[in-house]
Design brief:
Order of helices and strands: HHHHHHHHHHHHHHHH
Shape: globular
Number of domains: 1
Number of strands: 0
Structural class: mainly alpha
Radius of gyration: 20 Å
Number of helices: 16
Amino acid sequence: MFTWTQKLADWLVYSILGIPYGSKLGDALDFFILDTIKILILLFLITSIMGLVNSYFPVDKIRNFLSRNKLFGLEYLFASTFGAITPFCSCSSVPLFIGFVKGGIPLGVTFAFLITSPLVNEVAVAMFIGLFGLKPTLIYVSSGIILGMIGGGILGKLKLEKYLTPWVRGILKNAEKEGGFEEEKKSFLQRIPEVFKEAMGIIKGVFWYIIIGIGIGAGMHGFIPTGFFEAYISKENPLAVPIAVLLGVPMYSNAAGVLPIIQVFVQKGIPIGTAIAFMMAVVGLSIPEATLLKKVMTWKLIAIFFSVITIFIIISGYMFNLIL
C-alpha cells in the first residue's frame, strides 16, 4: 500500500539531497520522511473512519455494555481484543483513545484498548508465525490481550480521569453540552463534510507531537546500532529482561518494524522472552509515544500509565523465558 512512500522518501533523501545511501544521516532522514507521510495518511483515514463510526454507531449502548459491573472483566476483554484486531500503531491510537473517552467509555477500559492496540496486530501476528512458529505466536497474542486487560483494570481502579489534559476535558464538556452521541437524521453524504472537518481538527491538534515523536525515533533509528543492545541483554545476565525494556523505551517502531530485529536477537542467543519484552517496550513504551500521548494525558498520567505497563512487560518477559 505504501510502496510509493518508500520510493518518494528514497528519492528525496538520496537523489535530491544527495546523502550517501546507507549512511546514518540518510537512514534517519529516510525513516523520518517515510513515517511522517505514512502516519499522517493513516491518521487522516483513521480519524475519518472513527468520525463515521461515531456518527452511526450506537455508542450509548456500547457504553452501557462496557460499564456494567456484572460483566466480571469482560469489558476489558472486549476492549483489549478490539485493540488486538486493529492494525494501528501507538500514534494512530490517539484519535481512537479520544473517541473512546468522548463516547463515555470508562477510562480503564479505554486504557485496555490503548495498551493492546500497538502491541498486537494481524501484520505482526503473520510475521511472528513465520519467524518463530505457532506456539510463541499464541503466547505473544494472549499475553498482549491479558496485559491490556490487567493493565486497564488496574488503571481503571486508580480513578485517573482528572489527569486527562484540559484539551480532552474540553472535548468531553462539549460532548455533554451537545447531548452526547444521539443519532441524527442525516444522510451519509451530509455527514462526510463534518467528519472530515473533525478529522482535520484532531490532526491539527496532534501534528507537532507527531513530528517531534517521529524525529526522536528517526534519530534513534539512524544513529544507534543494533549491536549496542545485544551487549547488554544476553542470556547470562539475570537482569536482561528489565534492561531490555529500558533499552527499548527510547526506540520507535511498530511491532512489524521491530520484529526483524527481534529475529536477529534470538538467532544470536538472546532468550525469546527477553526479545519479546524488548519489542513490547519499543512498541508500547517509547519516548516518542509519550510525546504523542502528551496531547491527551498529563505527564503524571503518562508516568503512571508507563509504570504499570513496564512492570507487566517485565513480568511477561520472565514468564516467556520460562515457558518457551
